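Assess this today:

___
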Amino acid sequence: MILVNSRYFAVWRVLLRRFSIPTTQNGHGADAAAHREYPVKRFVYVIANITALSGLLFGYDIGGSGGTFEMAGFRRFFGWPALGDKSDPAWVANQQGWITAMFSLGCIVGSLPSGFLTDFMGRKRCIIFLSFVFTVGAVIQLVPSGYQMLLAGRFISGVGVGGLSMAATLYQSETAPPKVADFPFDVRGLVVSIQQLSITAGILLAGGLNVGLQHWDEGWRISYGGKGFFSLLLMLLMICLPESPRWLVAQGKSEAAKASLGRIRQEEEVEGELAGIEEAVEAEAQMEKGAWKDLVSPVDFMLYRTMLGFGVQLLQQFSGINAVMYFAPVIFKKFLASEMAILANLAVALVNYLSTFLALYLVDRAGRRLLLVCGGLGMALFTALFALFTSAAFDYQNDKRLAGVIIACTALYVMNFAYSWGPLAWVVSAEIFPQRLRGKCMTITTLANWLTNFCIAKAVPVMILPEK
């Protein structure tokens, strides 16, 4: 994930120049970029890619757990029926739901205090602490003595990811320059590009590991606990990075902020940017603070904005994407052998990863609303076709061509999600709220996403049980 040689950065420059979100007028627009005299330090790329490991952790978990349900060693250890049956009994489906949903429940708990923790501890120390929390959970998942211990590890890792989802993104945005000299993208382009790609890369990595580990009796332990390697790596590498200059200024530590800026900016830029940060922090301190009741106020259409942000996050999850990402191998095994179901899941993960580049290319060229509409229509079409062909598959068992069509429909559905509702639900939620209420609104919309994620993860295994 993190390679710091010149060839790696050359590749990233090409990718981000080609696919990143173009500049928006947010105070660091095109004019500011045109007058930027100094190239960005390579260390900025290092920071962006180190913190993007937090997205890899989340993606790894999304793509990993479902495949273990079709591993013989995992089923034997937890006393589940052996591979071969097209459907599991209800008690197994219930355990599958809790194993998956417990991670989402941890994310809910971890996301709630993350804003306080980033302000109290600092961005850097908060990321180190949350990485440690995630690592503890991963170690527990690596060596569980039983079902309850696995659930505990899942919950603890979820707490870590729930906090990291905010802390890492905040740290990225406060250490990246507002505009990079040698290619046209702003802070949002940097954060969304690398973070979104790292999530889909994590899904792909976990799917690939499941394919390679499925015949090893203890392979499932790597699928669950192996992510601890990346969280430990994130924790250790963060020790070497500077603290956010903005947070240091907010704490009255201007000299420390100057030293931090000296590591991530050219020497000639430090004084000017430090003055800009001090001015912004002072203005923010004088800004009228929004109250929770303002979220439902008719002033500035806040009730409409809150409903829109809340609704976009709910609809993203109710599109069914995590039913596919979490449980694709369980669904595919109804038409394929377990080994082929895990392989088909890897193919879907690859489509998801590649389609993310399409999102980064189109997001400001086509506009948010058009992509959401087109993506929604595409998902609806291929979901309907999936339902049609899966119904037919029950009447034509072991038809490989029909199974191939079902996998293709799933992949095309995921592609439509990846270029639209996947990244844009978060982009829209961040853009529609005024600055004085943005923190509170993002807390509400993020909580809506995690809660819906939890409900889907818990319900889907039971929903796909055959009718009695």
